[in-house]
Design brief:
heterodimer; A: 168 residues; mainly alpha; Rna Polymerase Sigma Factor, Chain: A; 7 helices; 0% strand; B: 163 residues; 8 helices
Chain lengths: 168, 163
Amino acid sequence: MNEPDTDWQAWYDRHGRALLLFARQFTSSLAQAEDAMHDGFLRFWKRREQVDEPLAYLYRAVRSAALDQRRAAGRREARELSLAQTDRPATPEPWQHAAKDEGEQQLRDALASVPEAQRELLVMKVWGGLTFDQIADATDSPRSTAAARYSAALKALRETMQTEEPTR
Amino acid sequence: MSEHDLNDIEERLAAMKPAEPDPAVRQRIAGSLQEDAAQAQRPLIFRGPWAFVTAAAALIALALVLLPLIGQIPTRPPVAIDPDATAPSVDEQQDEPDESLDAIEPMRPTLLAMHQALRESPEALEQLIEQAGALAALPATDQSQPIPTASTTWRRVQNEELQ
């Protein structure tokens, strides 16, 4: 039984950061993202031997758990908002350190502003290290679509940064 | 927008390091996996939904065993019957009316006494009713006149029938 324990820790060490960032793309708080990561990781670990592409399945499982969390949180927030109109509490940044410079902060802001479907591709490719085949598997889309969306996401980022640059 | 620009953005993105998950997440995953492993070691009938099926089956089996036994359980302790003892006959009971009951309270004529008096004659019934009326009219402390009681009435009726 120690063998599988070591295995899951290796998976967790390798992908934990990217998975948390990935889950944050769908949830409104760090706590929800962590819950999604926990649920998705467990789901992945139980079925990892039955799937062709475990890494893609890991992201798919976390994505599904994050969407579940978001739906549940949406219902909770709707109930709470009906009772008291309050501002959403600030959630910590999903990055390890504060932005080094203005350029990095600009990139972070631009990343936060692109559509969710593009953000999730960026996270999977850049921080998760997934190939386009794996991304296609994780998002249930053709490889060409995944590649095109990724390219579009990078362009959107670039354009967002260019439009913001003159105002700074 | 050139390919170089996109590669540049990709490199800048990759340089940003996501935050480390809280150590509690790792602990929660470890706890959940241990729980799953412990559950997997139990026999199938004690896992997940099978545990409920097993519990229900056990309860039904227990009920099937206990229900017939419940019917046989006596509701009160059995009465020890002496085989040599004989119950007093009806005649004995009639011959020896319990006088102690009369000492407690003078009784008004019973329905049986009135019925027997009527069988005898209407006058006898009237007499019995008059006696009852006199009994009701008597003060509680007046003991000078004999009060007809169930036993005396019964005796009187018996004697009259014999005559």
